[in-house]
Amino acid sequence: MNVGKDELVGQSAAMRDVRRLIEIAAPAKTTVLVLGETGTGKELVARSVHAQSARKGGLVSVNCSAIPADLLESELFGYEKGAFTGAEKTRHGRFEMASGGTLFLDEIGDMPLPLQAKLLRAIETKHIQRVGGGKDIPIDLRLVCATHQNIEADIEAGKFRADLYYRINVFPIKLPTLAERSVDIPQIITALCRAIEAQGEVAGMPQFDETAMQEFTRYPWPGNVRELRNVIERACLLFPDKAIDGKKVREHLVRLRAPEVSEEQDALWAATADLDPPSDETETNAEMPLPHPSHYRDWFAYFDAIDVRRHLQEVEIVLIEAALEKSNGMISHAADALKLRRTTLIEKMKKFMIEKPVN
Ligand SMILES: Nc1ncnc2c1ncn2[C@@H]1O[C@H](COP(=O)(O)OP(=O)(O)OP(=O)(O)O)[C@@H](O)[C@H]1O
Ligand SMILES: [Mg+2]
Question: For residue 175, which atom of ligand 1 is closest to its CA?
């Protein structure tokens, strides 16, 4: 789902700067380097740069971290017939496909070193060679690169070529984290709700009150706008047409616990698990069979990575809270229901800062 067409929502000073930089850079052929944490909108910036560039060709994207290193070269530069076993006919690479348009090299920080040398040569000479071919092929494209990595640190560590960095870091656009522009959150939520409503797949929009908005604005959003989008989509499914206040946000949508300093990071991650939180509705489904562990097999179809430790911890918290609620706060009954020893349950409650429900 996308909010509008390539629309970077937000009236914060930081977001206005970003839009202004895009406007300045787009019409030129300058290489743009988009920097920012995960989920801050780097791809959206790349699309906007292309859309505002008036370049006639298309936008061709390559995610350098998603393509295995040994395939990336032929993906980028193409190959000649007979270049390797299975190369039955000549194939154009993404550089050639992007000719006349824009090539978006996403996660360029993950590009293997040998390929970095080839990329550098392509940028400097404006020519490429297909794998297994000796001919120089001219390329005419606008390059946009993005990374969530700290490339300067990668250079120090010998993982990224300094000369390539200087070639791609011509016009950097750095995206702020969502926490740095929390004033934009209400507007982004409105835009997200509108987009979801327009798709017509949910029964009605949840109504966030003032305290809910405060909670959203306070939350640190380690997954940035992508995480906010997931939370809002989840809210639409769980609470269609319902009023949502700050308490509901805290308990069901963003799970932030006041942790000890050493546990802070863990709690933050636990708070952002991309799984459905407990809802009032699920509690009535006591007869439902437990989800079978094999269901998790499909998860990589939806997520690039799954933090197993964080996820299992989140499941544990949900089950403990549900057991305590079911037993009206009687710890020994809850422990029986969870097949845990009473002392183990108490330890876990301390660890996860779970309070006994008060009647
Ligand atoms: N300013 C914004 N306004 C509205 N939606 C946004 C904004 N920034 C990001 N989004 C939305 O958030 C999601 C994540 O954005 P995007 O994929 O561009 O992030 P990214 O920085 O490329 O993330 P990653 O590093 O994980 O690849 C997308 O659905 C995008 O539409
Ligand atoms: Mg991206």
Answer: 21
